[in-house]
Amino acid sequence: MFHAPYPTALHGISSEDALDAVKGLFKSDVDPKRVAAIILEPVQGEGGFYAAPAEFMRGLRALCDEHGILLIADEVQTGFGRTGKLFAMEHYDVVPDLITMAKSLAGGMPLSAVNGRAEVMDAPAPGGLGGTYAGNPLAVASALAVLEVMAEENLVARGARLGDKLKAQLGELRSAVPQIGEVRGLGAMVAVEFTQPGTSKPDAEYAKKVQQHALKNGLLLLTCGSYGNVIRFLFPLTIPDTVMDEALGILSAAVRLA
Ligand SMILES: Cc1ncc(COP(=O)(O)O)c(C=O)c1O
């Protein structure tokens, strides 16, 4: 397996840089004819909640088409309404060959799935793919219930609305908190990145202080990113309005360390 950098404008990596890095791997490390697939998250989860720019996604698709490589979108974290669409790839004019999904798929029951082009999905012979717990009836029933509730309660749109509210609140804090380097997000997948004021240098210390402040007041926050300086939000799409508002209040004080 080979890794290439993800485009992160804040840290000076453009889509062109990231595509050049893949092309560089093909020149010096691996013959593209030997590459079965390129897999990426449309919005990086653990990596820092960076969304892939459209031109990067298009560039990867073009590289895959040129060399007969499959493009796999890992939607384990982004799928099922997390980004304001049912799947994050719907934000792009690019179609992946395969999509991986899990997490929200079954609302907490252990289930994962792969979907994609029929030609790829039908490639394994019957019995060629399996596992002890494959198709677990309870988990599958849970996934069916999730799909029903998502449609009934319009959770994709609700997630986008709550994400916008959160993003707007974090944006408003920028003038008071110079450590806020960037507020970003796609739908409900929102993050705030802390940097040393006036620079793009990561400030993990500040992120930790915010996290501790929030924890003292009853709000659990998760960090992410290579530098641990990003706080990300993964609230349940079913969160009651009153609980969300309470969380936003605690968050606002925590980000200001007030
Ligand atoms: C984007 C992404 N892909 C894959 C995984 C691994 O998923 P699983 O635990 O279902 O193997 C995770 C887990 O956190 C994830 O966030």
UniProtKB/TrEMBL annotation:
The residues the entry assigns to the signal sequence are none
Asked whether the UniProt record includes Lipoprotein among its keywords, one would answer: no
InterPro entries from the UniProt entry: Aminotrans_3, Aminotrans_3_PPA_site, Class-III_PLP-dep_AT, PyrdxlP-dep_Trfase, PyrdxlP-dep_Trfase_major, PyrdxlP-dep_Trfase_small
Cofactors, names only = pyridoxal 5'-phosphate
GO MF:
identical protein binding; pyridoxal phosphate binding; transaminase activity
One Pfam family for this entry, by name? Aminotran_3
SUPFAM superfamilies per the UniProt record, alphabetical = PLP-dependent transferases
Q: Which UniProt keywords apply?
A: Aminotransferase, Pyridoxal phosphate, Transferase
Among its keywords, does the record have Transferase?
yes
PANTHER family in the record, alphabetically?
AMINOTRANSFERASE CLASS III
**Can you name this protein?**
4-aminobutyrate aminotransferase PuuE
Provenance organism: Herbaspirillum frisingense
Gene expressing this chain: puuE
